[in-house]
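Structure tokens please, single chain.
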Amino acid sequence: MANGNDSPVLELRNVTKRFGNLVAVNNISFSLERGKLVTFVGPSGCGKTTLLRTISGFAELDEGQIILDGEDITNMPPNGRDTAMVFQAYALFPHMTVAHNIGFGLRVRKKSKQEIDAEVERLLALVQMDGLGDRKPHELSGGQQQRVALARALSLNPKILLLDEPLSNLDANLRVSMREEVRKLQWRLGLSVIFVTHDQEEAMSISDLLVVMDHGVVKQIGSPTEIYEHPIDEFVANFIGHINFFPGEVIDLSGDEMTFKISQTNLKVEIPPFPVSVGDRLKAVVRPESIDIVSAEKELSDRENVLEGRVEFGMYIGSIMRLTIAVGDQTVHVDESDPQHKGIFEDGQKVKLVLKKRIHMLMKTPD
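Here you go.
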């Protein structure tokens, strides 16, 4: 029985899955709020697809529990779980029409022809496939096949929709538009969704919650904003977006500000939200878009947090100029927004970089 709308729709309790000596999923626990989209994200081989398969029932647990809407489904077969899965390869039946593919699960559940026809028409409209019910999968584009796979999964009205890298076979532009469609569909229907991807941008753009994984363990769980702005360690910081690290030492504390000595200069920055003392070794985590860049000739009224460097390489990407800057013996990555109006920096040009006072800090681990 369900525990009410305030309870999580899914709970994983100390879930572990092994393949021989390999621990693919290692003691993972988390809960999914009803009507939210959570994404398992991480590099290839991190365990995200295996974790999804344990939820669907296609992989048996070695340890732990899976609770779906208040019911322990740990030992249930896949067809006994109120979940539906969309695979990377879509897995449409090639000999069936679009309409028959979508209605397959309803026929298995022995719904009447009238009920099936009505539901198939509703789902075709929902995924913007009106009038295409008589086509075969090979007559459809990749995006259309993806819509059919989604409609077929939704026909079962599952408590959780499971999506295993469903957009990875699409070209870049179609991939962007399809993830927008998935997100809009999830909002409109109030679906509870688990999405698996290795694409950081895709994960950031589509999710209410990110579960960042590496080597079978969860490194951090949080909203896209939390993960991006406050990564818990270097792995998460490196994996989600581009990043610069500035290792250094706290040399002074004054009020809510500290002086942080890095190899190039002393930075005046806000004290981080954890205890620090003079002499502590930290790492400043700075996103490329958080660094202001000006030509070396420009006079700056506020001389704090200024680094001097030289442009090694620049890539013009329209909305941004992605620059690689040599600052002493360190390479710094900078994303300059709106380069059409601000001007384009040339390779070899001397520049000044200005870092902000609010910088995310990590405790420095031993090298």
